[in-house]
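Appendix C reproduces, verbatim, an entry submitted by the partner laboratory led by Prof. M.T., so that reviewers can inspect both the input and the predicted structure.
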Amino acid sequence: MQSREDEALARAAVDALTGQLALAPKPGLPDPRDLAARTTRVDHRALRWSAKALVPGLAAMAAAARRTGEPTPQLRAELGAIGRCAEHSLALAGGGHRGALWALGLLVAAAALDPRAGAKDVAATAKRIATHPDRRAPRRPSRGSSISATYGAAGARGEAKAGFPHVRRALDTLGTVRASGATETQARLDALLTVMSTLQDTELLHTAGPLGLRHVQAGARAILETGGTATEEGARALSAFDTDLHTRAWSPRGSAGLLAGALFLDSLPVSSSPPAA
């Protein structure tokens, strides 16, 4: 049975996902200022709607973790089964967010195991869950796993098994940029660029190949090296980079999902605490 805390964690995760969607400009990613989402061929309104469809599945993952109490193989199998049902709900709601669902599901479950844990402790617990194999998973490899095998990229599963290093880097960037006096939007955009600058994004490898991936990584690093999006030079470079990736129809969706994971962890001191009596 789900509790108010389970639903609160699920809603915090979805808020993180919709918060990521609201950012602009996000290089190569759907822009809320352009409801047709330009060359990404994804309607921004549909993405927001499908994000909200994740609440029941994520709450069920939190409840499963709370019942199990430990990051066991049994919990991993149950999360996998819930995740596959949630993917079906996503498809009915318009699709999108599959990579974010994997990351957020593990992080929500890890947060439910210890509501008092800090953000990076939650990432470490998610790693412990992810190291267990999902023995009930379909035998047919996913597109992401096939691309990971072809190019030797870590992929979504490798990221989780490593303890979400890119999520942790994004968290560090959020703290650093906020402390510098930049706006929250600038901090979040810099965190996204931090992920993009090093992530072996399997979506990009699929659409653009290794050369395209390196182009995206280099573009993100170049903006950060100007001082980030809070500087005039960085803001101009971000706008040009956004236009470039939309023109090429290259979308770093893996980076967007991991930013959502970072925003979820960033919310934990408030959202995962039990309500006051």
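The CA atoms of residues 66 and 274 lie 13 Å apart. Additional entries are available on request from the coordinating office.
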